[in-house]
Design a protein that fits this description.
Distance between the termini: 5 Å
Radius of gyration: 18 Å
Strand content: 5-15%
Oligomer: single chain
CATH superfamily: Decaprenyl diphosphate synthase-like
Helix content: 40-55%
CATH class: Alpha Beta
Number of strands: 6
CATH topology: Undecaprenyl pyrophosphate synthetase
Strand order of the largest sheet: 2-3-1-6-4-5
Length: about 240
């Protein structure tokens, strides 16, 4: 969901205004995604690199997490949306971690739509985490090195409960993955738009879907797979 701060500055406002606007856009995209039959939406809310931003902005983002959860959790639960936080939550305050856990617990049994929120997440860090876990199991004798394959590796990923994303949407014109779901995006279709996230409305969303539907997915083979519907998941960087 890139471009919040730049949008605020471009409008003569603060970067914080951009982040607030970005929340309202996300709410709308969730509604549109559900209407289209998408089952999983994964958004990159706070990366491991975001800690390097100015302290004032980091504090604002963390407070925004807390305020949005308090305000929106009941409505999300009413809409049968499951919330899942993906990332290392240990650096956050105890109060914020409790709110993350509470949101997951409240919505745990909702099965119509899942919203994955990548929070203090980094793709490289996730792969290192899995490598360490498998190394420990190998040293302890729980598994043999030759047993390690793609399926076992995937079972230790933070997204192990979900299919890999069908489509990655990158706003603000950035042409890179930026340490987002490095393993999971191996065969995802990528859509890049110059539109900043606060201006990514329903029409822009449909443009991405129509573009996706026009593509032929071969997954490294020859025979293509139809993209007429998004049956599993989307990701926003």
């Amino acid at each position: 969901m890139d471009g919040n701060g730049r949008w605020g500055v471009n409008k003569g406002l603060t970067r914080s205004h951009g982040h607030n606007k970005g929340v309202s856009v996300l709410k709308n995209i969730i509604k549109v995604s559900k209407k289209l039959g998408v089952k999983v939406l994964t958004v990159y809310a706070f990366s491991t690199e975001n800690w390097t931003r100015p302290l004032e902005e980091v504090k604002f983002l963390l407070n925004l997490f807390e305020k949005v959860l308090e305000k929106e959790i009941d409505e999300l639960n009413k809409e049968l949306i499951r919330i899942k936080f993906i990332g290392d939550l240990s650096p956050f305050s105890e109060d914020l971690r409790k709110k993350f856990i509470e949101a997951e617990n409240i919505t745990h049994y909702n099965d119509q739509f899942t919203l994955n929120i990548c929070t203090n997440y980094g793709g490289r860090q996730e792969l290192v985490k899995v490598a360490k876990e498998l190394s420990r199991k190998s040293i302890s004798g729980e598994i043999k090195p030759d047993q390690i394959n793609e399926e076992m590796f995937e079972s230790h990923l933070l997204t192990c409960d979900f299919q890999d994303p069908d489509l990655l949407i990158r706003t603000s014109g950035e042409k890179r993955i930026s340490n987002f779901l490095l393993w999971q995006l191996a065969y995802s279709e990528i859509y890049i738009t110059d539109v900043l996230w606060p201006e990514f409305d329903e029409n822009e969303f449909y443009k991405a879907i129509i573009d996706y539907q026009s593509r032929n997915r071969r997954f490294g083979g020859i025979k293509s797979v139809s993209n007429q519907s998004l049956k599993s998941s989307l990701s926003y960087r």
